[in-house]
Design brief:
Blueprint lengths: L5 E4 L9 H16 L5 H7 L5 H11 L6 H15 L10 H10 L3 E5 L4 H10 L8 E3 L12 H10 L6 E5 L2 H9 L3 E5 L3 H4 L7 E3 L2 H8 L1
Helix pairs in contact: 1-4, 5-10
Length: 216
């Protein structure tokens, strides 16, 4: 467990407490434009950890709506801009674990399905960008998580054996991508719905502080 030379972090729900932000911006669109009311529990169960494209497909198949992906992209981006992503808080112990990883001399990368503008805005606001050696964002790949492409690209950037890379994720989608890329994955979640879907993680933790105690 102490043979890792690099740590790859997910962003949303792992380092930043963004799921309620996304829910609060999607819910009015779904209600006003499509007549669909969702709760935060619905968001965690069905939307969290997935890309916009996947969520549009899910809405059309599961909820029998007629949502256009481009329309939803513009609608959500418009609301995000007005809501100000700089208000998104860090997850508990996020900065502390980045400090620990840095103090151990490990390389740190970010692998996310969010766009680089989101990364720059939120992590920039919290002055965390300099902790990372590189970023793999939505623009970096053709196939986002749960496809392994983002983590395979990160592995290429690191140029070290896969067994020396640790991934920290919070959803089944991200964990699936990491495991498919042949990486060791610690999943961090307090959400019971999500924890039940994380049996394929190598370890399951309830907080980033627990990850630190497990691995370092």
């Amino acid at each position: 467990m102490n043979n890792f030379k690099a740590v790859l972090f997910d962003l949303d729900g792992t380092l930043i407490d963004s799921e309620y932000f996304y829910y609060s911006n999607w819910a009015p669109i779904l209600s006003e434009d499509y007549g669909l009311s969702i709760t935060f529990d619905d968001w965690i169960s069905n939307f969290a950890g997935h890309t916009l494209a996947r969520n549009v497909v899910m809405l059309n198949e599961q909820y029998k709506l007629k949502v256009d992906e481009e329309d939803m992209w513009f609608a959500t981006r418009s609301r995000y801009a007005k809501a100000d992503m700089r208000t998104i808080r860090l997850m508990p112990h996020a900065q502390e674990i980045l400090e620990v990883v840095k103090s151990k001399g490990l390389t740190t990368g970010l692998v996310t399905s969010s766009y680089k503008t989101t990364v720059d805005t939120v992590l920039g606001e919290h002055k965390l960008l300099d902790y990372f050696s590189f970023f793999v964002t939505r623009e970096s790949v053709e196939q986002p998580k749960p496809n392994p492409e983002p983590y395979l690209l990160a592995t290429q950037k690191l140029a070290i054996p896969s067994e020396e890379i640790l991934v920290v994720e919070d959803t089944s989608t991200g964990c699936t991508a990491a495991k498919a890329a042949g990486l060791y994955c610690v999943a961090v979640s307090k959400q019971e719905v999500e924890r039940e879907r994380l049996s394929h993680a190598d370890k399951l933790a309830s907080s980033l502080k627990e990850v630190e105690s497990l691995l370092f």
